Amino acid sequence: MKKLALVLLILAVAASFSFAQRGKTFIGIAMPETHVQRWVKDGNALKAAAEKKGYRAEVQWGNADQAQQNQQIQSFLNQGAKALIVGNINTGVNSVIRDAARDNVIVIAYDRLIMNSSDFNYFITFNNYKVGTLQGQSIETALNLKAATASAPKSITLFAGSPTDDNANFFFDGAMDVLNPYIDKGVLKVVGPYPRTSADKANFQRIATENWSGPIAKQRMEGLLSGDARSVTLDAVLAPNDTLARAIIEALKADAKYRTKLPTVSGQDAEFASMLSIKNGEQYSTVFKDTNKLAEAAILLADQLLKGQTPAIPGAVVASGELAKIGNTGTKFVVTYLLDPILVTKSNLQIPVRAGFYPANEASQITAR
Predict the structure, then answer these.
(1) DSSP labels, 177-211
(2) Cα distance between residue 367 and residue 365, in whole Å
């Protein structure tokens, strides 16, 4: 009898907890993929931040498949989600965003703008033009381009991110606004395709990397090494993120020409493996975007909107002036909140470590002498 009473008590507690969970406002979190490490961290950070504020939250990753992500978002809507945080894959997401708008669900585009849609109003990200500027400046510094001459020019080859990710345009344009003046002076030579800006769609497509795929970047780098760059020793590679940077470095290290000295290779996301690569003198730089803060800011924005408050996000500015175009979906300008990125090289590896960006075992490896 006592055992039966205990079982009934446990079932009652479980039912009570389940009811309490169902009674909470639900936030659905849709992330694009898991093959780029930061999206795993972001999804988990968003869920934790939402639950800390008392919401019920679920996170799903789309495996770089928009149809799969759409099913996940539709499931969130079927469960009664009142807000969605969406890091989309491509414009195929627009149909479910339209469904969310029809149901008066708040949609916040997370670090990737939802293009060609007028069915949402908010975007939260980093100043992605500045990310590119920092990448360009890191190459400018590493190659000492201010002292370079046309008689002994430096050489660079260019990579860009996924052509379906609008951020890839801002990263590239920010970097090229730094590098183009040196190209114009003849002190920096581009090996391979040269889109002056992302607006040169034909050439931009030639340097873009579908789905931010490392294997695709490695294969293209191998093709350059046996093709356009065969008779050139590259001084730099513009790589838009860490996943691609490491893949490019892998291809370079297989070429005898670069076994003792690698070109300067940029990056982004301060991924653990790239932090070790920078520490070991391989990858030159990364751009640290504190995605823990971005996740907290996104949930704070959702919380304020769900409560009918006027949003005020500490540490973020509303994009205006020239930066307002970061929130241009092609059909409307959405309210865009920007956080600030930080350039990281071997000289300041401790910045993301001090921000608590890594678990203790990884942090200790980065800081160990």
Answers:
(1) HHHHHHHHHTSEEE-S---SSTT-HHHHHHH--GG
(2) 6
Helix 66-78 / helix 94-102 crossing angle, nearest 10 deg: 10
Amino acid 369: pLDDT: 83
Q: Which two tokens stand for residue 233?
A: 């020793």
Contact 107, 305 (CB under 8 A): no
Residue 177 CA to residue 293 CA, distance in Å, equals 28
Reported confidence tier of residue 17, pLDDT bands at 50, 70, 90: very low
Cβ partners under 8 Å of residue 242, min gap 6: 267, 268, 269, 270, 271, 273, 274, 283, 286
Domains and CATH numbers, the chain: 24-120+290-340 (3.40.50.2300), 128-288 (3.40.50.2300)
The label of the residue with tokens 């670090």 reads 111
DSSP strand E in the chain: where? Answer: 26-31, 56-61, 83-86, 106-110, 122-126, 154-158, 188-190, 236-238, 264-265, 286-288, 317-318, 335-339, 342-344
pLDDT exceeding 90 applies to what percent of the chain? 92
CB 96 within 8 A of CB 73: yes
- Report how far apart, in Å, the C-alpha atoms of 53 and of each of 26, 189, 232, 296 are: 12, 52, 55, 10
Q: Residue 50, class by beta-carbon neighbours within 10 Å (0-12 exposed, 13-18 middle, 19+ buried)?
A: buried
CA distance 334 to 189: 38
| Residue 137, token pair as written in the block | 């400046």
The radius of gyration computed from the CA coordinates of the chain, to the nearest angstrom, equals: 23
Mean pLDDT of the chain: 94
Q: How confident is the model at residue 41 (pLDDT cuts 50, 70, 90)?
A: very high
Range with the lowest mean pLDDT among 30-39, 72-81, 223-232? 30-39
Backbone angles phi, psi at 311, to 5 degrees: -60, 140
* Residue 346 clears pLDDT 90, i.e. is over it: yes
To the nearest whole percent, how much of the chain has pLDDT over 70?
Answer: 94
